[in-house]
Amino acid sequence: MTLLQIAFLIISAVTILAALGVVVGRNILRNALALILAFLGVAALYLLLEATFLAAVQVLIYVGAIAVLILFAIMLTERLMKQERATNEQWWVVLVASALLAAILIFLVGAVEWQVTPTEIGGDPIANLGRALLTTYVLPFEVASLLLLMALVGAIIIAREREEA
Amino acid sequence: MIPLSWYLTVAAILFSLGLYGALARRNAIAILMGIELMLNAVNINLVAFWRYITPQEFIGQVFAIFVITVAAAEAAIGLALILAIYRHRQTINVEEIDLMKW
User: How many CA atoms are closer than 13 Å to the CA of B49, on its beta-carbon side?
Assistant: First the structure.
């Protein structure tokens, strides 16, 4: 067992425990804080995979933007969600289904012979990623920026207070 | 080196936890958080496949970036919808938001 493997096991244990903290428990604020820890754990996994740019993006977008947005929404809506049950009546069906899905996926992962090619990343990964984004994948890149603009305008229009006419 | 299957196993567990959160919770924000967990699990898979199978081409990372973009858009729109619903009905419990339920 190498040092990297031990680091991986620790990071994934923290991430999975944090994800568990996201879905169980009644306090939605604690769920959101656990979600931040889970996002950070995923960023650490990206670092182990040598995807440094994605790790930075993960911290900036997920921890910096999405988690803060979720915390804002919780603060703006929290009033009646405290003392009630956190789950609906079908939660045990969902529990069985999710456990079954996890079992099937883990079985499949173990059953397949993965054609791994242990090569080094060629050149400067960040420069190559930027080149790929602006040459081969330039159309989806531009469409993604359009999508973000639409989401921005749409979110403002949906969430703003409507003055009565 | 860390085996590829370890990453895939972690991602599978994260995805299942997110699925449970998205389907079993009553709070709409908790459902959104479950969806974010599932998207993160998918991204781990994409990046792991990129690193282990096609490290010369950057399609895996590019796809992960697009997934993050869509996740950001989804979170913004979803939370705006939740705020709008809360303003109208004073609740974000999805069992009480049943106007369109037949």
Answer: 14
pTM here is: 0.91
A13 touches chain B (CB under 8 A): no
Taking the CA of residue B49 and the nearest CA in chain A, the distance in Å comes to 9
CA-derived radius of gyration, chain B: 17
Is residue A32 exposed (0-12), middle (13-18) or buried (19+ Cβ within 10 Å)?
A: buried
Write down all domains in chain B, each with its CATH number in brackets.
4-89 (1.10.287.3510)
CA distance to A7, A8, B42, per residue, from A3 (Å): 6, 9, 26
Tens digit of pLDDT for each residue in B46-93? Answer: 999 999 988 888 888 999 999 999 999 999 999 999 999 888 888 888
The interface pTM score, or ipTM, of the predicted complex is: 0.92
Per-residue pLDDT, A57: 94
Q: Is the pLDDT of residue A81 over 70?
A: no
Nearest to A114 by CA among B60, B15, B6: B6
| A102/B12 CB distance under 8 A | yes
Q: Which residues sit opposite B93 in a β-bridge?
A: B27
Helix or strand (DSSP H, E) at B77: helix B59-89
